[in-house]
Design a protein that fits this description.
Blueprint lengths: L4 H26 L3 H4 L5 H8 L3 H6 L3 H10 L2 H8 L1 H18 L6 H29 L4 H29 L4 H6 L1 H7 L1 H25 L11 H30 L4 H28 L4 H20 L5 H11 L2 H12 L3 H19 L1 H13 L3 H21 L6
Helix pairs in contact: 1-8, 1-9, 1-12, 5-8, 5-18, 6-7, 6-18, 7-8, 7-11, 7-12, 8-17, 8-18, 9-14, 9-17, 13-14, 13-17, 13-18, 13-19, 13-20, 14-16, 14-17, 15-16, 15-20, 17-18, 19-20
């Protein structure tokens, strides 16, 4: 009788690792936005307690994009030394530490520094999660990207909705409501610790294979037109998303709608992203190219901004739906990043390049929109700018979505 224990053991190990990777991806994604979205509902209380000026509070809105752009560039080098799983683990530990400590400091600079620590952890995770998907699920890139994009939206909207009730449960203490999200980040650490150990074993096996058959070729992604198209697409979709998140409720209120109605319409754009992120990324991952999807999403955004420009209060739910669908450009961008690279190492560099350059490109947009609104006293000029930016986004999406490999 022949006993095949090793193949069976490897199969069980592979199955366990894939299941653990699914849980780890979802938990990581749930923690990528509460750092930002949990603060807004209690920002007034935090400012009063810390003596934070309105100018400093305004800077908080641009800190995430700056941090994502600058820190994200270090992700490939860190992943090369410690493996992507280990770096994501360290990033989530930074998120947990920043979330746990920042509500209980009495100094604005220290509060900002701890927020920066958490955002730095998010930055490296942003870059490396597409790499983990590519390595762990090469046959299901779209579906897994959709899954963690959906979890990201759930985490963002839940933190925005639940922070105040959490504070109320602790006697109205905003610090407790804000710090409670550190628990969710801590829960994500054990599966990533297990994944990091498994990743080190896989890295040793790959190193042995490279020694026997040659290592993978390193590519300068900054010289690749597809990489630049991805970076421009990522930056312009982020610009649109920041404009929608920062200004859409005010646009509706200025059109005569109540604050409650404006809030519900904004919530509609966010809630749409939960199922659509999963479905769109799963479908896009099965296509040879994604240029048609990128163009279609751009057309939705163009129609949404045009509707707000022409008659914001006429059918506001339609404009909210159109812009909510357009916001699904984010999971599409992540899917394309994972699919354009031929191997995990290339995806790491491509993800870092596209996201870092993209987030840098996204910083001026919301600021210019706010300045135009203040200067003109209305929304026609800002919305015309937002609509015009959809045109290069469509063009970049068409180029990035072609069936190309770097």
């Amino acid at each position: 009788m022949v006993v095949r224990t090793k193949p069976q053991g490897r199969a069980r190990s592979t199955t366990w690792a894939r299941r653990m990777a699914v849980a780890a991806l979802v938990l990581a994604a749930l923690n990528l936005r509460p750092v930002v979205t949990s603060l807004g509902p209690v920002l007034e209380e935090a400012r009063a307690a810390l003596g934070m000026s309105a100018t400093v509070a305004g800077l908080l809105t641009s800190v995430p994009a700056v941090c994502f752009a600058l820190v994200g560039t270090a992700a490939p080098r860190l992943a090369g030394r410690h493996g992507p799983d280990g770096v994501v683990l360290a990033g989530l530990a930074a998120v947990a530490a920043g979330l746990a400590l920042r509500p209980f400091v009495a100094s604005t600079p220290v509060f900002l520094a701890l927020s920066g620590l958490a955002l730095a952890g998010i930055a490296v995770a942003n870059v490396l999660l597409p790499v983990v998907v590519k390595q762990r699920f090469p046959d299901r890139v779209g579906m897994m990207t959709g899954l963690y994009s959906m979890a990201l939206n759930v985490g963002a909207s839940t933190a925005a909705a639940v922070t105040v009730p959490l504070a109320g449960a602790f006697g109205g203490d905003w610090r407790a409501g804000l710090g409670a999200w550190a628990v969710l980040a801590a829960v994500a650490l054990p599966p990533w610790l297990a994944l990091a150990r498994d990743g080190r074993r896989q890295a040793r096996r790959r190193a042995d294979g490279d020694a026997a058959g040659g290592a993978e070729t390193r590519v300068r992604v900054s010289r690749e037109p597809t990489a630049w198209a991805l970076a421009v697409y990522f930056g312009l979709q982020a610009t649109s998303a920041y404009v929608i998140m920062g200004w859409l409720p005010q646009i509706f209120r200025d059109s005569g709608l109540s604050a409650q109605a404006a809030g519900l319409l904004f919530a509609l754009t966010s809630v749409l992203g939960v199922p659509l992120s999963f479905v769109l990324a799963a479908v896009a991952g099965r296509l040879r190219d994604q240029k048609g999807v990128a163009v279609l999403l751009g057309v939705f955004g163009l129609a949404g901004y045009a509707g707000l420009w022409a008659a914001p209060a006429a059918v506001p739910w339609l404009w909210a739906v159109l812009l909510g669908v357009a916001n699904c450009s984010f999971p599409l961008a992540l899917t394309m990043i994972a699919m354009r690279g031929r191997d995990g190492g290339t995806v790491i560099r491509l993800s870092a390049f596209a996201q870092s350059v993209g987030y840098l490109l996204s910083i001026p947009g919301p600021i210019v929109v706010g300045a135009l609104y203040q200067h003109t006293g209305g929304w026609r000029a800002p919305l015309a700018l937002a609509a015009c930016l959809m045109l290069p986004q469509i063009a970049a999406g068409f180029l990035a979505g072609r069936d190309r490999r770097i």
